[in-house]
Amino acid sequence: MPMLTYSFGILRWTQSELDVLDRKVRRLLTAYRMHHPRSSVMRLYIPRKCGGRGILNAKDLHNREIYNLREYFLKMNVNMYRDVVAVDKGLTPLSLANGNWKRLKVESISDRITVWRSKEPDVDQLASVAWLRFSNLFGETEGFIFAIMDEVIMTNNYRKYILKDGTVDICRACYRPGESIRHIVSGCSRFANGEYLHRHNQVARIIHQQLALKYGFLDSAVPYYQYQPQPVLDNGHVTLYWDRSIITDRYIVANKSDIVIIDRSARRAVLVDVTIPHDENLVKAEKDKLIKYLDLAHETTAMWHVDSTIIVPIVVSVHGLIAKSFDQHLKKLSLSSWVKGLIQKAVILDTARIVRRFLTLES
């Protein structure tokens, strides 16, 4: 693209030729499975910091360059430039002598984002798309993840309502109506105690390992997918429980959070619970976790003779969306903000793994 830019304003490029060039780029990405043929085209040309793929669009580059060059020549109050403007009656693509020149259209980033999706005000937009800039995923994996997000995977629901080929919209795993991408990544009962639990535990392992390192239970870190948490870790000052029911004096329904920290030196306890909902339930899931463990928090405060018990929900959506409150929860655990990037990557990769495995099932 930088090489082509040198030709803009000198060689005549038609809008159709530029469209063909952009289509060839998309076709090449599709051939190498880096872009699903039914995924959003708009998202390809949105910067990665805004949630897109960050690919340059030849047509927009050309039209912007033509406009900038015209403005440069027309604003320069120098004899040589005025002479060039006077004689350029269609000699160059700039048509400097044409007073009725119509500015070529350039799609703005905001226009593309508006077409692509509407934004959720409670979501940390920058953190939610950080995986596009820092996770270093393979192009094929990234393309597959975008196809999942755009809901263009060949499910029975897609075949029935989009392709209209007469397919019966029944989930091939749980045999219930509605085999959509949303159902596959977060709503299939057959995957609840297997695939979804595995994804959930991947996140919980990351948190547990970082806490174990912080409190001196571990000397060095291992990849999160190899880490096997111990049910109980204790050094006299801090006790760290993993997936353990808390025996209380009175009956409490929700008595088992994923991780429990009892810090005797700080006289506080922390209940950490992980959940991975669908995108639209991100904020609701966090509030539900806070309410769910209120009774347990009151009971443990009295039972363990600590000053307070804090509830820390770790919530990341199936597509890696992160709420604005996520950093505050990490601060309560005294964990660095880089941890959320690792958590986000783990969730996204496991969501892709779940969909791949689902698609291998026979319809």
Explained architecture:
With 363 residues, the chain is α+β, with helices and mostly antiparallel strands. It folds into three domains: 2-118, no CATH class; 151-192, no CATH class; 207-336, no CATH class. It has 15 helices and five strands. The protein has helices at 2-5, 15-31, 58-75, 79-87, 109-116, 125-128, 131-134, 139-149, 156-163, 181-186, 195-214, 282-292, 294-303, 326-332, 338-359, and strands at 232-234, 238-242, 259-263, 268-275, 308-315. A five-stranded mixed β-sheet has the order 1-2-3-4-5, sandwiched between helices. Strand 1 (232-234) and strand 2 form a beta hairpin. The longest helix has 22 residues, at 338-359. It is elongated, with a radius of gyration of 27 Å.
